[in-house]
Amino acid sequence: MIIVTCDKAHEKVHCGEKEIFLSGPPTQLRGHITLSNLDSEAMLVRELPMKRFGKEALLQAGLPLNAPLSPGENRRQSLNVSLPANTAPGTYRQKIMVGGEDKTLTMIVQETLEIELIPESLLFVGIAPGMSHTKEVVLANKGNVPFSVPVLRHNMSLDMDLVCRNLSMALKETPDGDSKATMDAFFKGLKKDLTDWIEVRIKESGTVVAPGESVVLHITFILPKDINPNREYEGDLRILDQLLSYIIIPGPKQEVVKKTAAA
Question: How many CB atoms lie within 10 A of CB 262?
């Protein structure tokens, strides 16, 4: 079997295209290439050598293929190429050597928005009207375009037992079979127990985060005036294309704190 690598036998395999195209996000560029084995011996095309073309050569080694070809076989082979995640959007060209010729490899890198939040969820201990909680969260830009930290002002939190509690109360308090009365009581209870918006402030709002960079966000949550100190609340804060989940639980009762201190 003929083994085709960057160092040998690449002149024995032929390519039908004048130009090979790849497109997609940097780490998932995809395309096709047509390969032909005109030899009488089976062939394994592991890779094809690259040549520098232009100012920047994204692929330094070879074009990986691992394509088996029977004698005389003509095959359309899928291509999957991974570049660094922060490769800037644009069109890049290089040359590959195949069949004794130079072929142009065109890589069209698309814009990719990818962020990471560390951590992805927060826990706040202590509930009181107007109370504020501040947490630090790392925001990492894992894509290839810069973005600004968004301005957030409000977020809706829900009592974790809101639906179950009001549905069970509505079922108990209304006559059997009277679905209208049950639903009216259910929605009335929901409306009564819903709290106002939580005020959200991000100190770093407007900060530009370049690809590959990270920033520490100082996020402050200010609880609404009508929040119930004895219930638990949860919500999701959308930051660009990611959700930062949070749970707010009551703190220890004052009596328990005093007893613990006395002990």
Answer: 6
Task: Concatenate the DSSP letters of all residues of 134-174 into one string.
Answer: EEEEEEEE-SSS-EEPPP--EE--EETTHHHHHHHHHHHHS
In order of 21, 50, 51, 99, 140, the CA distances from 96 in angstroms are 12, 4, 6, 10, 35
Rounded to whole angstroms, the Cα distance separating 140 from 209 reads: 8
> Can you give the pTM of this predicted structure?
0.73
Q: Within 10 Å of residue 139's Cβ, how many Cβ atoms?
A: 24
Element of type H or E holding 33:
strand 29-37
Give, as one character, the DSSP assignment of residue 120: S
d(CA 227, CA 221): 13
Residues in the chain: 263
Burial of 254 (0-12, 13-18, 19+ CB in 10 A): exposed
Structure confidence by residue, pLDDT tens digits, 18-64: 899 999 999 999 999 999 998 889 999 998 888 765 555 566 678 88
CA distances (Å), origin 147, targets 57, 75, 120, 154: 26, 42, 19, 21
Structure-derived torsion over alpha carbons of residues 141, 146, 148, 149, reported in degrees to the nearest 10: 0
Rg (CA), the chain: 30
